[in-house]
Amino acid sequence: MSDCLFCRIVAGDVPSSEVLSSATTYAFRDVNPGAPTHVLVVPREHIVDAAAITSDHRNVLTEMFQAAQQVAALEHLSERGYRLVFNVGPESGNSVPHLHLHVLGGRPMSWPPG
Ligand code: DGP
Asked: Fewer CB near the terminus (10 Å): N or C of the chain?
């Protein structure tokens, strides 16, 4: 979708700091990091958000979680731990309508989040 920011990032039309790339997913650093490591894993195909997921998306979801595991390993977070977040809808703070998995780590995190 030409008017979707993350589709434009995936296409290379908007610059980003790449962490990982595959045929199905793309991972890049969040422009406004909330932790020392803050990476967004997105599917290359346009999916609006987690509320739009159906059983047709099982492969892409598996690949997104595998990408997150690889990001955690690359960022030396696998042992110390990290947080995975999907924001859905306005009260969550979701601002970009293209499915994205936040990978956050590198500092202790409180629960529940603010
Ligand atoms: P969410 O609030 O869940 O919709 O998260 C969207 C994230 O996307 C937010 O943490 C900031 C990040 N973001 C927004 N615009 C850009 C951009 O142009 N480049 C990058 N790298 N990240 C962006």
From this structure: C
- On the question of a cis peptide bond just before residue 112, with omega within 30 degrees of 0, the verdict is yes
Instruction: With beta carbons less than 8 A apart as the criterion, state whether 40 and 76 touch.
Output: no
Residues of the chain with pLDDT under 50: none
Rounded distance from Cα 91 to ligand 1 centre (Å): 16
Active site annotation includes 46: no
Pocket of ligand 1 (CB under 6 A): 5, 14, 16, 28-32, 40, 87, 93-96
Q: Kindly report whether the global pTM for this prediction surpasses the value 0.90.
A: yes
106 Cβ neighbours under 8 A, 6+ residues apart: 35, 36, 37, 75, 77
The residue whose C-alpha atom lies closest to atom 2 belonging to ligand 1 is 94
